[in-house]
Specification:
By secondary structure, this protein is α/β, with parallel strands linked by helices. Strands 10-9-11-1-12-13-2-14 form an eight-stranded mixed β-sheet, sandwiched between helices. Strands 3, 4, 5, 6, 7 and 8 form a six-stranded mixed β-sheet that branches. Helix 9 links the parallel strand 9 and strand 10. The longest helix has 20 residues. The two termini are 16 Å apart.
């Protein structure tokens, strides 16, 4: 029986979403703008990278031509050098919202058709009732922040006061999320997780998609930095995803990175949660090594989004893309006859864009494997086509949305 590997390159959008104006994102183009910046020298950083964006393996799989199909523009240096080696296209997100659950759930066959709840861009941003219950149930002296903010900026703003008062830092963004940051040692990691579990219960009333624990370390003298012990507490998908379908059909499932958190740990099989893109990709490749027939590995590489997109770091984002591209031959070497690999994204996060939030974009769909028909798979009118294609490849009937291109 065949096997499948699905890798979500978190936030690697390719522009062009027709409803981008609804989100204030008309013109956003994550890959295109990174490639343009690198061609102009704005992607250079001493000791990190320099020159045009260099993604020869992804270009050979169709990344550049997928960008061109999405936006009408071929990004600099992304033209394939020789015949294409994969099946390529782009996906149109139909879900409401441009956040992580919306994109991943739709990829897995459950588009978000309802309206998420959001906290207003006011100070304070959280309802008084929510704040009071969080303080009471968490036995807190109060909270800090209580506004829309960048995660790194708000830690810099309030970390010293957090250490002085013991109050956690609570903030949100344009996404449907409550984020709670606290010092791993001073506040305690387990205490932070428990506080986020309380927050998850309280946020259900407001239809908030995720509560995220954002632990950090450091001192005023050395500076503060977020750690890899982030944990997401998501509301579960409203109906069966491809993960549920595969588990019910008796197929082996391995989820890597934050996939378990995104799907509220429902039907997420063996969960592996390393820290960082390289470690997550290594874990996914290793999982393919002993994956049984009919098995499925579902991985998320979050650094593109969390470390570079939100921080509007063009050189860092470009370097991360190039680091991933260099490892594609390792993915190919891990495959057996009949295996399928699909690489895609859940939304955009253009590091050249204003603000620090996600951007509403099309996403690339690049697939390869022995026996796969090469060439264009066209414009896919829903990201659910990705999940439907995984199920079709594994010989499982799809009960939900999406049309397989196989």
């Amino acid at each position: 029986m065949p096997r499948a590997l699905l890798i979500v390159l978190d936030s690697v959008g390719i522009g062009g979403a027709e409803d981008a104006d609804v989100y204030g994102d008309t013109g956003a183009d994550t890959v295109g703008h990174i490639a343009e910046a690198c061609a102009e020298g704005r992607g250079d950083q001493a000791g990190l990278r320099q020159g045009p964006l260099h993604l020869p393996h992804m270009a050979a799989l169709g990344l550049g031509v997928a960008c061109e199909a999405s936006t009408g523009r071929l990004p600099p240096n992304l033209a394939p050098q020789g015949p294409l080696k994969g099946a390529w296209g782009y996906g149109v997100e139909t879900s409401k919202g441009k956040d992580t659950p919306s994109g991943h759930w739709e990829i897995a066959g459950v588009p978000v058709t309802f309206d998420w709840g959001y906290f207003p861009n006011t100070i304070p941003t959280f309802p008084d009732k929510l704040t009071a219950e969080l303080i009471e149930r968490g036995n807190l002296p109060g909270i800090l922040g209580n506004k829309h903010a960048s995660g790194t900026a708000i830690i810099e703003e309030f970390a010293v006061e957090h250490l002085r008062t013991g109050k956690p830092i609570c903030y949100t963004s344009i996404d449907s999320v409550l984020q709670i940051a606290a010092h791993e040692e001073f506040f305690g990691l387990d205490r932070l997780y428990e506080l986020c579990r309380i927050g998850r219960e309280l946020c259900d009333e407001y239809r908030i998609g995720r509560v995220i624990a954002r632990p950090f370390q450091g001192t005023p003298e050395t500076g503060f930095r977020r750690t890899g012990n982030r944990k997401d507490y998501a509301t579960p998908p409203p109906s069966d995803t491809i993960l549920d379908t595969l588990m019910k059909a008796g197929h082996s499932v391995v989820t890597v990175g934050k996939i378990g958190d995104i799907f509220a740990h429902r039907s997420t099989g063996r969960e592996i949660k390393p820290n960082g893109n390289d470690a997550c990709l290594s874990a996914a490749i290793e999982a393919m090594g002993d994956l049984p027939d009919g098995g499925f590995v579902f991985a998320n590489l979050v650094d593109f989004d969390s470390e570079f997109g939100h921080r509007r770091d063009i050189p860092g984002y470009a370097a991360a893309l190039e680091a991933f591209d260099r490892r594609i031959p390792e993915i190919e070497a891990a495959l057996q006859a009949g295996d399928l690999v699909i690489m895609t994204a859940d939304h955009g996060n253009d590091p050249s864009w204003r603000g620090s939030d996600h951007t509403r974009e099309h996403v690339p769909i690049l697939s390869f494997g022995s026996g796969l028909k090469l060439g264009a798979i066209g414009r896919r009118e829903s990201l659910a086509d990705i999940g439907a294609s995984v199920l079709a490849h594994l010989g499982v009937r799809s009960p939900g949305k999406g049309i397989s291109w196989l």
